[in-house]
Design a protein that fits this description.
The complex is a heterodimer of chains A (117) and B (106). Chain A is built from no helices and 11 strands. Chain A has strands at 3-6, 10-12, 18-25, 34-39, 45-51, 58-60, 68-73, 78-83, 92-100, 103-107, 111-115. In chain A, a hairpin with a 2-residue loop joins strand 9 and strand 10 (103-107). Chain A has 117 residues and is mainly β. In chain B, 0% of the residues lie in helices and 47% in strands. Chain B has strands spanning 9-12, 18-23, 32-37, 44-47, 61-66, 69-74, 83-91, 94-97, 101-105. The chains are: A mainly beta (117), B mainly beta (106).
Chain lengths: 117, 106
């Protein structure tokens, strides 16, 4: 079975960084792009960026460009999302998502990141 | 930047048909996907490439896309269909989500 398993909840102070991991299993990791999507409390889904898991190139939304890094470890089938200079507005559930046929077919369980002083 | 617009809420009686729209400039020229999101769960893909259903998604879910509007239709709506629904499309190399529609079954 195809699964994406994310790391656990994080609590960070404003200005700090957070790194969330996403381990893939049940398929060939490098054949599918990986995206990151977040949902702040009471808000909708927000796309953050994606990585070509084979080549490693990335693309980000304008909103988080400059603060977000997405990397991958192909030997371990893990994708990472690191967000820096955290502020209260970054409090959200963060999802890693597999892309197939222009859509998001497999979602991780979500990682709650709380930014609070 | 490209924007997708959804109605904030839609209400439907059990057994009736619910239609949720997603509007964007020339949206019919690109593929649209739809996701169902229930509280405490991860979103679930229900329609991809405008009208295709992933394995395991009931036949009562269908989609269409033409002109500036994509539509998710749920026929014979059931209580379990109550959720937030999001449309999604690509804007060149970036992804856009609609603002979401809360479907209430009452």
């Amino acid at each position: 079975q195809v699964h994406l398993v994310q790391s656990g909840a994080e609590v960070k102070k404003p200005g700090a960084s957070v790194k969330v991991s996403c381990k893939a299993s049940g398929y060939t990791f490098t054949r599918y792009p990986m995206h990151w999507v977040r949902q702040a409390p009471g808000q909708g889904l927000e796309w953050m960026g994606w990585i070509n898991t084979g080549k490693g190139n990335t693309k980000f939304s304008q909103k988080v460009q400059g603060r977000v890094t997405i990397t991958r470890d192909t030997s371990a089938s893990i994708a990472y999302m690191e967000l820096s200079s955290l502020r209260s507005e970054d409090t959200a559930v963060y999802y890693c998502v597999r892309e197939d046929l222009d859509s998001f077919d497999i979602w991780g369980q979500g990682t709650m990141v709380t930014v609070s002083s | 930047s490209y924007e997708l617009t959804q109605p904030p809420s839609v209400s439907v009686s059990p057994g009736q048909t619910a239609s949720i729209t997603c509007s964007g400039n020339k949206l019919g020229n690109i593929y649209t996907s739809w996701y169902q999101h229930k509280p405490g769960q991860s979103p679930l893909l229900v329609i991809y490439q405008d009208r295709k259903r992933p394995s395991g998604i009931p036949e009562r879910f269908s989609g269409s896309n033409s002109g500036n509007t994509a539509t998710l239709t749920i026929s014979g709506t059931q209580d379990m269909d109550e959720a937030d629904y999001y449309c999604q499309a690509w804007d060149s190399t970036t992804v856009v989500f609609g603002g979401g529609t809360k479907l209430t079954v009452l």
